[in-house]
Amino acid sequence: MRGAPPFARPSPVPDVCKKAEALSELEATTKIERPVKVDSTLSKGLQILETLSKAENGRGVSDLSRELGLTKSNTFRLLQTLTTLGYVRNSKTKLYSATMKVWQVGQAVVDHLNLTEIAAPQLKMLSKETGEAIYLAVPDGLSVIYIEKVESTQPIRSFTPKGGSAPMHCVATGKALLAANYDLLREQIRDHLVKYTEKTITTLKRLDADMAATQARGYAIDTGEYRHRILSFGAAIRLPNGDAIASIGVSAPDVNLAAGRDQEICDLVMQAAEGVSETLKSV
Amino acid sequence: MRGAPPFARPSPVPDVCKKAEALSELEATTKIERPVKVDSTLSKGLQILETLSKAENGRGVSDLSRELGLTKSNTFRLLQTLTTLGYVRNSKTKLYSATMKVWQVGQAVVDHLNLTEIAAPQLKMLSKETGEAIYLAVPDGLSVIYIEKVESTQPIRSFTPKGGSAPMHCVATGKALLAANYDLLREQIRDHLVKYTEKTITTLKRLDADMAATQARGYAIDTGEYRHRILSFGAAIRLPNGDAIASIGVSAPDVNLAAGRDQEICDLVMQAAEGVSETLKSV
DNA sequence: ATAGACGTGCTGTTATTCGGTACATCTGTA
DNA sequence: TACAGATGTACCGAATAACAGCACGTCTAT
To answer: Cβ of A34 < 7 Å from strand C?
Structure first.
């Protein structure tokens, strides 16, 4: 779910080339752009898949062929191949519908997203504005893995390297992700609240409170709960449907933070995470 | 995220027809099954899309053509059409990768899932075992909509009709979904805790506690918080990645519930929701 | 400077897809 | 019951559309 209702989400991506055959002959366009040959079979097949993915119940062959302007036999043939490929199933009532394999492929896109590249500009911005160590993190069980890091420009540095990991319950990047999925992770993490500093949250009660506060304010704060006197601030990166798949964080020694500076950094972190989330909406 | 790490999720769906051309000539199979003609263009195009969806960074033309056993020119052509159709983009470094449109199409499958049909057996089971009113609900803003209902067989009935809705914070189906997305919905619902009975949760503090308890136990309990002396029990239906998209609930007047019966029903509800979630993994 | 690998455009040939037709089944109506 | 229309599926020859091979410009690394 994630906020959006499960039915009828309008697609922000325009349907390119709705009628492939329409441009096969007409080149009367003032701009002499390359006509860009498209394989019609592939195009039609994907159109069918797209249409089926938006169908509440399945749809029939004739029905589909009429909507897409295709021959019945052609539509049938394409549906047949899509079925044997596992992207479509046909129920006993002769109705065709998209399978979860379609969903899986789409999910794979997100799972293998090159966040590093997409988030790079925002990480750079954060580094420039704060001068502190910037982290890009993804969840891995009850830890976070830092898949990208921009080194601090300050003389005093924090030292978790790129590729390293940290427990989810005591760093800001981790807590931002934990808060976003607390319903699923609470039971798993309750017995793994390992203590690293005297600030570390080690009881479920305190974690509950901290997660509630984190959810309320929209970003996470670590007051030196993993490394002594190393503070961090983190916010979640979300897909268009609200799923939190990663987080951005800033880590800094407390001595670097003058009064009010922490709030500035929090705002920047949220802004950065929000920026990446927005970017994800458009490719 | 949702428990599963964002990288390298093994696909449970086998790749049917990895080499389409392999079966075009050989029919020496003992079983004389229909050869099932597949449109090779569509097949290859989807193979490319699938491969691309699993690629961390983009992939090159030659690279792809080698892996899939296709001609370089053929691969290029297919990539070209996929690009103009918006499913693929090619970066400045000449690397091709899948776009979020692929994800959107997959997402649409889930959004338009005919849960009614899929959940029907479990709803039937619940009805048979409990004899009470059974609900299948999806989220809609801060409410739930009952997209399916099996009427109670008991003389005393609860009366929310199929198609009706109820506030998320006071019915079990709603609370199960609320708990599954509490990080996103908490701030939205805090000012909408409308009172319906003396049992209704109207303060954020009490809701926090109830949600924590719900998350901990895995199902939601409504002690007559919407309709006086009408209790309900609900559990979330989740996609393979953990997203809660719907919920199943049982509603019953308190007089129908003998001692210990409530726990039986809770177990059944969880079992039913779990069953539907499992079904979603295989189409 | 050179050799290999890469992405891209072109073209003729062939294999592939296409459209028409046919038929069995089903539904609702006269 | 008979009929009319719509449906899903099978088949087949024709021609179109997709294919393989080659050529070219570019880039990288040796």
So the answer is: yes
